[in-house]
Each structure stands twice: as structure tokens, then as C-alpha cells.
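User: Fold this; C-alpha cells only.

Assistant: Input:
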Amino acid sequence: MKVSLCVIAKNEEQFLPMLLSDIKAQSYPHSGIEVVLVNSNSTDNTPVLMTQFAQDNKDFQNVAILLNCKNSQASSWNVALSYATGDVVVRVDAHGSIPMDFVSNIVSNIQSGEKVVGGGRPNKVLDKTPWAMTLLAAEECMFGGNIAKYRRVQSEKQYLNTIFHGAYCKEVLAKVGGFNENLGRTEDNEFHYRITQAGYKICCCPDIISYQYIRTTLGGMIKQKYSNGLWIGLTTGVCPKCLSYFYFAPLLLVLGFVLSAVLAAVGIAVPIGVLSGVYALFDIFITVNAFIGRRRYPQLLLLPFIFPLLHFSYGAGTLVGLIKMPFWRKTIETAEKRINEIKRHYSDIK
């Protein structure tokens, strides 16, 4: 079975070498792996690293280096999909890490009859400094954002609405096409929604595991949360059914505090007092819980202050996205042409 392992990267010279090393270490026969690397207009050494990998690893069936001149994740993934010719196409994030049996376990589950597979995707840090481990604790707990089932290692097979580092049979791509290039951050939600609407199941398998490196700074994490929230707001105008309700929890928190503050300004202080008290109790409870089973660093005491920053940045992003959404919808171009091109590409693969 031929596997196309696809990676897109924009200025990822810090993380890409580790992922390329993971790809090189795959136990699945390299003669059955096509590596597709997409350079998304990088201005650092990303293209050099890709070229060096291709020169040093001739045992793969093929290593392709492609360029995407558009500035979006979805368009870069479509460049990869338009080239890939595998029986199975695997999407791996440049901030990701995959164990040596990653591809082998994907193939095993596909051969068992599944059409779309993935697995748990825990987070990890680049350097295990006390501050990095604190940011990891904030990202890993459910209060910080780790509510999606695919973010944790699974003990049994289950079917989900979306998956990270997904692997797709070519028949699925022939049916649903590629990614909606109008979307950013949420392109995978909409893509997986079309897959389930086409009648396919998305299987989260316990023997498939991969990892994602978190942002290395609090500022970077806040920016990421704001961008995630912004695209949740914008996507409500394109495909609201592909979004889970929990994505809107930070927005409700922001709106709750705004409304409570307005009431407090006119002399009704009870709502903001109650909301602040309840939030503070959850904040402290999750912080205490974060100490359990971890090496204790003094920096973990900053978690009660980190959580509000992440929640309010995400919620503010969603609010801005909802405000912009009606005007944004009037300017976006249809994505159907590109999606259909990828349908035809996979329909023509023998």
C-alpha cells in the first residue's frame, strides 16, 4: 500500500528538522512512502532543510518539494493533495512529532476496513524548562482548552467528528475533494464535516499516536488562541454545523463579564460578583489539579492568571469574528472549483 505523507511548513526551521527525523525513522518500508513537502513562502531555512532531506533520503519512493504562493494553510494542504498519489494520504503538522510506527499503524487500521483514521495527539514541549512545562500544563488541562477527545491518548477505538494528523483513503478524497481555501484554522473542521456528510466515519484508533509542540511563549499562545477564536466566528457564516458547542464557551464567558460589568456600572453588582466567584473557583481548582502527577515548579502558581488570558483572547477573537463575518462573507470567493479539482485528481488515480 502506497502512503503519501504530507507536510506543509512556513518558517519552521526550529521544528521541521525534528519532524523530518521522525519521517526518516518510520518503520514502514520507505519504498512505499511518498513524502510531499510544501514550502508556504518561507523566508527562513525551511526550503533548505526540505532540499537537504530529499538529497539525503533516496530510499523513499519519492520526495517532492512544492511551493505554495498563497498565504493560507488550506491552500498549502490543497497543493499537497493535488500532487499526492498514495492509496492513503496522511496529513502531519510541521509542529508535530510522530513515532516510528505511526505510518505502519495507520496502514494496519486502513487494511482492517477503516477509511479515515487518526489517533490521540497529546502536546509536548520543545525544551522542558519550568516555564515551558507551565505553558504545557495550561494547554493540556480541559480548562485551558484540551476538551477535544483526539487531543488525548485513547484506550479504545471510537468514532469522532474530527481528528488531528488524519489519514484518508484516496476514495474519500475522490468523493469530498480538498480543503476550503476560504477558511483558516477551521479548514479541517469543515473538511471533516464534509467527510461525515458523505457517509464516512472518522476513526480514532488507540494504537495511532502523534504529538504537537505547543507555542514556546505565552504571547505566541495568546495570539494562537485569538486567531482560533476569530476563525470560529468567521466560520459560523460558512459552515456552522462543523463547529462544536464548546468552541463558543470562551465567547459566552466574555459576553457574561461584559454584561455583568455594564450592570455593575449602573449599580447592580451581584452578577459580576457571582460570575467572578464561580470562575475563580474553577480557576483555582484546575490549578491545584495541575500539580497532581507533575513535577512541581513555582511557575505553576501562575496558572490562575494564564487561564483568563487564554480564555478571554479566544472569546474576544470569536466576538470579532462574528462581527466581521457578514462583511467577510461578501468578499470571499467560492472554493468549489479547487475542491472539485482535487476530486478529479483522486478519481483519475489508478
